[in-house]
User: Fold these one by one.
Assistant:
Number 1:
Amino acid sequence: MGIGTSDPASKLDVEGGMAVGATYSGTTAAPTNGVIIEGNVGIGTTTPASKLDVEGGLAVGATYSGTSAAPPRTEPSSKAAWASVQRPPPISSLYAQLPATMVSRTPMARSLGSFVGGSSGGGWLGTKSNHALHLFTNNSTAQMTVATNGNVGIGTTGPGARLEVLAPSSSIRPPAFKAEMSGANLLVYKGANNATVVENTSGTHLALQAAGGNVGIGTTTPAQRLSVTGNICYTGTIGACSDRRYKTDFTPLSGSLAKVGLLQGLYYDWRTEEFPEKEFPAERQLGFIAQDIEALFPEVVLTDAQGYKSVDYGRLTPVLVEAIKELNALVQQQQATISDQSTTLNTLRTQLDANTALMQQLQSVLEAQSRK
């Protein structure tokens, strides 16, 4: 049948607009080559309850029409739900479960919303049954999942926390997580040796090693439980475990004074150009050479996996204390010796004074006899 055309190519071919309904007919012009319908429209049903009520599948678009059957009206088991709507570029194809779901389209945009219980408090998007909500693009697997317990997963369909982000296992960069505010950002990504690296805008790193649990600040390859590249400033207390109940097999230090005498304090500069990752300061330094200390006190020298050495200067304190005690013992011994020598000298001085007095008496007697 043709309306406005003598050569219809379809079951119903209308040339121009079409208005249906008493209110529209004869009063309101339909859009050019468009249709306006006052009442409900039923396809596959004689009792439409909505503006458009479709009993069965619906295919829209030149690619689908007459070639592809729409899915039947059953519980969808995949992304191909109850309706397939073809969109021209740049609008992507949209899969939508029609019951309790509203699909809207504006130029250069697309949206999918579900209004639950007639609420006017905003748009709702989700599942009415006890199923997770999966979001995807480019016909891929699920890229974001909202689980039935409210957990959100990105890169995982089984999030075990309120937010779980799973990056590809082979990815070192780009980061799996990024938070940015007013030019400042926080990045979380996979570093060398599967370390978790947290980086801020300035490029400062906090690294947590997967194996061993070492923590690095300013370095992504911590060699110790805590490795810090740069200066440390603190106002509290750093304490080393020292309770007697933790210790056994005590042996006093000996010869500390002689060993300390073999150490040589030095002024030096860091080789900053050869080791830029260490961020050594440019200022003149003073200290010891680790190898020199290791020869005398190996217990206070640490060696990393690459063979580089560091010194725990705090653990030299007992050595210095014992050296001072040895030096003090020597001073006291010398003081005792000097005291003894002083006593002997006083005794000799007294004897000398007595002998001098006796000699003077004898001289007086001799002089008196010589005058007779």
Number 2:
Amino acid sequence: MDATKIRDALKVLLAIDDDARDAELDRYVSAAISAVEAYTNRQFQSVAQTDRFYTPRRNGVVLPRGPVASIEAIRVDGAALPVGGWHLERGGLVLRMSSDQTPTEWNGALVEVDYTSGIDATPGWLVEATAAIAAEFEDKAGGGAIGSVKRESVPGVFTVEYATGGSTSAFGIPSEVAVLLEMIREPGFA
């Protein structure tokens, strides 16, 4: 994700019009990006990596970091599979394919997959959602009141005003943002 765009959106939410707090805001943005990646089981920057699977499942291996942008190579017990020797399914499931393009068993003790995962282009709504999470983090750290203002009063007796934050998930993500993130959430352990 583009941290600069998220910081700029955060500054709009917090009504900050100078650069004096940029280093502090960058910490909240970084934490928000990490929370979004953990919550959605996705990476938002392309990363080349290799995963190893020992005695893989018969029906395929599941690449743990997604979304998968491309598979560069697959080796079974050190021998490279030919291009077309695998098929990538939704959710990072990789099937080994026979010469007639039907799924087949892996028949190996070690499967190594070289692949690239992540999303380079971040949609505007995700920038805004991540900025809202960063604002929640900034609010919880004591930087200000981003929640709703509540007022209780009994005329002629007392008036009390206070700020409240919305409910959050285990990741510190506001519930209204979590609803949006569900659209891109991959199955996993989060």
Number 3:
Amino acid sequence: MNSAFDAPLSDEQKTLLRTIYIPFSENGKWPIWQYVERILAKKGIDANTVYSSFPVVYGNPGHSWQHSYGITFRDDNNHQPRPDSKTCLTVAGISILGIDLSLCNLFLNLIQLLVNRYQNIEPTPYEVVNEVVTRDEILQAIINPIINAMLEEHSILRSKQLYSILEHEPILSSMVRSLNSNGDEWEIPVSSEIIRFKDIVTVDDYIDLIVDWLKPSNAPAVAMSIGRLDLPYAIGYLDAVWRCWCDKNLFARPDISSSARLTQPCENVEEFNSFMSALADILGQVLTPDKEEPEQKGALESLQNYLEDNFKENREILTRLIDQLTILIDLRHLRVSLQHSDARHKAPESSRRLGIDYPPSNWNELWKQVVTLAQGAFDAIREEINSDYKLEIRRIT
């Protein structure tokens, strides 16, 4: 097992992992957080404390899907959990728990099947060859041979379980495609991404590959060249596109003085804290179209919930939107950890997730990193909303 995950599990950690896994083992669906939390509460265990105790490997925010990997996964990006957040084990978690190693072997066999299929594609000089592996092919090739043909229900369960695992594994999640809402029918378009797994033989090999993939590059994480008006412009441009998309402003009552502070150079820690507060003030004014006032706490999380409800049929756009919201939420967490003594120990973790330097050698350079990340997130959200708006216009016309 990769050194990041080789520490022995405590009894409470094992209890939480089993609580997550048992419903999944019975019907191929991961339980919601409220179920996990209340089952552990009956046993006198604080689920939030135990959940946050698991090791996590953080990577570069530039990765296209998620920039962390651990033993568990929650579809609210591990921020303040919602009661209905789907709570899962990763391949690493299932392997460490050791309760169903045959499922891990099926996962490895599936990877090998995809690699072989990709390597055997016959290219043509003038047309793109699209290869797709269907769920039925997976059943026939890797599941049925090791399950008695009489146990068809168990084969279908294994198929659901494989899909539920693939949904939240880095790299692979962007390849799997659901054909209905319950995971009964799915397929995997075979892309060149799969070739990176060609030498994977064991679960440890797989985890090592994911951890290496997540490692930040040696190049600077973010560009250092910014204009003083770049961030306010990005906020205003996003608000305008959002208004076209849903006929309401994204920011309820943005404070002019807060926007003005975002244009200033930063010379010391006091100014940095002031500018981070200004950014937090603006983020706190985010308003979903179904509300008249922004949430007192968790405005960005409320926006995430809204987007998840409205983009559930367009997973690619939703994934990119959530990636950018995660960056903005982490920036808000960085501000809290720097300005509140009881949360100061979280500053290194927040900065590591964002790929920025902490403690800084220069506060102005740190502020430039924050501005670049925030501007990039606002711009990316605007582009995704604008693309959906254009799609909707095309549908209407």
Number 4:
Amino acid sequence: MLASPRRRMAAISASTIRARIIPAFAVVLVLAMLALLGWAMFAPKSQTVSQDGRIDAPGVFVPIKGRMAPNFALVDFSGQNIALKEFRGKTVVLNFWASWCDSCKAEAPLLSHVAPTLDPNKTVILGIDALDAKADGQQFMQQYGLTFRSAFDASGSVAVDYGISGMPETFIISPSGKLVGKFFGAITKPEQVTEAVAAAESAG
């Protein structure tokens, strides 16, 4: 039985639509893939994913307002107890690092250079070696000449409390114990620290 003219026209129309849509869809797909490839090749460095699996945005400071910094009680690498509340009344530069973090290796000498230039009566830099082997952390401190006090957070519980997304991250805490902001990725210039400390002192 022959199909009616109306059915033949419907079949022809459907075939024509498919013939037009499929090539168009293929073109759009190819263009999208090329655009993605171009972004991966030419995106600014601050937008690319680093080897440690995070967005690499060195030196980007993000303000934080209205939150108290989580307290912690750890043991530093000399075997002494250390708690954040001990430093109330001072600006705290809290740096999370690990021996396996390549960006930390570049940042450590800079922070070690900055630490002695800060007024110890007003500001302190503290390090927290998180999710690391203690022996590796000790070797890291010696190799990169850390001049600031660092504690060991084997379980990463303090890092979790602060909500870090990768290493390194540095939090600026005001003398009243409030979070002022944090640096995503490695700090690359000494003035980044001094400017953030000034902002924390102004915040009180």
